[in-house]
Fold each of these.
Amino acid sequence: MKSYVFLFWGYLVVWVGLMAYFVVLGRKIASVARRLDSLEARTQGGDPRRTT
Amino acid sequence: MRRGYDVFMAVLFAATVALMPVALYLIFVNAPEEKVMGAVQKIFYFHVPIAAVTFLSVFVLLAGATGYLWTRRAGWDHLSIASAEVGLVFCTLVLITGPIWAKPAWGVWWTWEAKLTTTLILWLLLAGILLSRAYASAPEQGARVAAVLGVVAALDVPIVYKAVDWWRGNHPIVFGAGKTNPLAPGMLSALLVSMLVFVLLYALLLAARMRLAALEDRLAALEDAAWRSQS
């Protein structure tokens, strides 16, 4: 029984760790893409203000 | 270009999602339970593929770093930084799943034996690469330091692999010289499919991280141009 507890935690750590990293990466990509789109729109509209 | 990337990611994601339940079935249902260690031995089917992917990520990192120093093309730099970060995630999981198996098997979470210590050194090197990239005064300098650390990390990989043969220790040797067919057929198929799933996951995360690096580069260039035109 104790052996299954360790297996459960090992399994949980791997998948939660990888999924968390995947989600963080997805959110970062979406955030940078949004800032990029906004900056490109401003630049093309003749308002090249720095977005910070 | 963007469409090609999206299709590539969709195919990788679909292949990973399709193979994951197959791997879980082979690990938890099909593979026989090891007689001495019991259920906890099944951590092996995650721990070994994750370790193998960590090694793969170090070699990809080295290829990216040397490619960038050779050609100065941004794509190589993105490959290098992406592989270092994804490799660090996998190496962290190796260092967590190992002790979770070691506690019931050895009675201790951690011991300073050669394989564990050299793996910890690999983790520190990967973390050092990311820190050197993040805090370098110039991107060029960061890339050079990362390439040097990448060479050291790549030299550490065969040492990690052969550590038990060279210095002994508690870590089990499943594969190696004189170990012909060490696994039961059910165990081997579970390990191979699990390995494939983790390689696909690595490729998926690597491609996503490379995309992020490319977008960050483009954003920095545009912000710089906007700032120059303003001042």
Note: Chain A has one domain: 1-52.
Amino acid sequence: MAHVVVGSECWPFTGGASAFEVEGATVREVIASLDARFPGLGAFVDRKMAFAIDGEIHQDAWFSPVGADSEIYLIPKIGGG
Amino acid sequence: MSETLEKPAAPASGLNVVGTRPIRPDGADKVTGRAAYGADFNMPGQLVGKILRSPHAHARIVSIDTSKAKALPGVKAVITGADFPPFLADELIEGGEAASSMRDLAWNVMARAKVLYEGHAVAAVAAISNDIAEEALSRIVVKYETLPHVIDVEAAMAADAPLLHDHIFTAGVETKPDKPSNIAQRHRFARGDLAEGFAAADVIVEGRYTTKATHQGYIEPHACVCAWGEDGRCDVWASSQGAFMVRTYCAKVLGVEISDIRVTPAEIGGGFGGKTTVYLEPVALLLSRTSGFPVKMVMSREEVFRATGPTSGGVILVKLGAKSDGTIVAAEVELKYQAGAFPGSPVGPGAMTALACYDIPNFLITGWDVVTNTPKVAAYRAPGAPISAFGVESAVDELALKLGLDAIAIREKNAVKDGVKAAYGPTYRDIGYLETLAAIKDSDHWKTALKPGQGRGLAVGFWFNVGGESTAAVHLGEDGSAVVVTGSPDIGGSRASMAMMAAEILGLPVERVRPMVADTASIGYSMLTGGSRTTFATGMAVVQAAEKVVAELCARAAKLWDVPVTAVEWRNGQAVCLDAAKDAKPMSLATLAAQSARTGGPISAQVALNAQGAGPGFGVHLCDVEVDAETGAVSVVRYTAAQDVGRAIHPSYVEGQVQGGVAQGVGWALNEEYIFDANGKMENAGFLDYRMPVASDLPMIDAILVEVPNPRHPFGAKGVGEVPIVPPLAAVANAVRGAIGVRMPDLPLSPPKVLAAMDGKAG
């Protein structure tokens, strides 16, 4: 299972929990797993957060692969000037 | 002259075009005045659109009487917030860089019940001449009930502060507050045990630093021409960082279908993040629908200052703890950023980047997004990062002084590298930070001693860089030329890099490739140009489209030679037959293009993608200053900026990005600031009073390009436009501290303040 770490943006959904193991072979499947565990978190993550999968940032990319031992950090989506 | 600019054109190993310095494709248009910017476009029968703006920083709109304006001959339309669709419930829309609040966007374009800053739009007119439009504005009667206002970010956070909105409840805290507040959001990043970290420290430094709101300062004011057709189809000609962004935002604000709007991008005279939203376009469209004529709107410079997004002013609290050998063991950073009239300051990225250059085991970073009675902030190069970096890099400078370490040594000791977890979470890979520090350490600048009276400062900076959605098409002409079409407005030289990458793949001289930026009906969707994403993401689409064209060229050659396509290779712009029995001479792109009608039709390809895996960038800046003892004026006398750029596609443009970012950062450090009077009115809304640096204020800025390629890009490119504005604020301030012996924590370091600091020291 992938190891997912979330920041303060997600705490209202996770009750303050920051790290957990989640099933999913793609970003989309991980989002579904997150939503099943913390209702509402999936939609929030889909809209607001980017996935840093093993150090590489994926934004709005449902089918980016997630490895069985991947480390995923959910970070606010990034824009710029 | 820059060390790097003197280098001869030399491509990277194995490349013929990428890495060289051809003449820029937009150069002739720009130097001859042929380039058509937003204000240069005109339509037959167009009207002049003008906006009436609030004279108050905060007021309730009691009534608006437009009858006298409407009665003025020559006035064709008058609109107010009541003419726009209502947005009673909020909705998030995607179309810019991230999801935005529909209601906030619409209410910023035209005020509804309240005005939230001086300059907030309250009504608009369209008339047959500029004079009549101005006269019509003067005949609109708005009754206001003025309200207490708040500009300062910490004052806005106070429990008894004037409240801008009654629907904002601080998000990102454990328990939802029961009262509304000006604090829209708290961001928090943490690791380790902060108390334990500080307990283990031998040395602790603490500081409070402040920055003022500054404007992006693009030369070209916002401008557009909008035409609403009788069939409901609309055309927009506008200068922006994203034609598709303009299309989406206009459609949502006006409640029309996206498919009914076509946006044609004009040449853009600077954006720097400030043109990633809409101000005039929805207004001009509604005026056009109301009047039945095309409407042209052009902001004055004063309007640009008063009504378009500057970046935040901020307060940065920093506490660092280190061992006596310089190892930083604990850091606490608190950031308070002005968002302007609506939530959405860049405090999030400010917090994420604050410690991104440092490997620290225990830290807590807290960021506060705070609404204030000032124009809604807009993105500005590396949004949020220069502000937090100013505090952190000043504090690291203090720490180095306390420990007797040099500015590079303390940063080398605590530097992030591949495999280290960034403070914002992910594990770094393929980064070039240590190489960038080494480049400065090896520079002539670092090795050259200061002259008497001078001060030297060093600071570092980070930006993520991003990818995202882009579309590109490559079309071959029958004469063997190529056209590269994208939907990414060129704000920093991207047309040159697109042409060069296509030329590299096709094997053409770059002069035979014409890069174009198309309208929203002529190319597939592309996110706006921003976040240093275009050369990476759109470039990836261009490369893939060019590769598809090459594959088609090889297929045509295979047909002509009657060999399988696997027996054809593309080498230096020619198809080469690998079947020796055919004794076939290589066929050039021009030859194949000339026969395309007979071999299957025109040759072109389009690729649409969502690019992932952008590589982050790091910059290390070194600045020398002199301070006039009589006036307090600071002169930057030498400046060197090194940056990991992945691979410089067109090194001159990359150096230009670095130099431009430094120039803007120096202005932020020394002179630029929004100044408000007691009523919340901006007092310096013009370039005479808002002092940006000009060429004569600056020395040649030496750019050192460090190339640690990003393996996810075909040529290794990383974004380059954001990083260069991150370090200068602290690099300059650290240099001033070195010159006068006093730490000045409050920007800008304008002459009166520097003089006062010097006098205070002397006293």
Note: Chain A has one domain: 2-76.
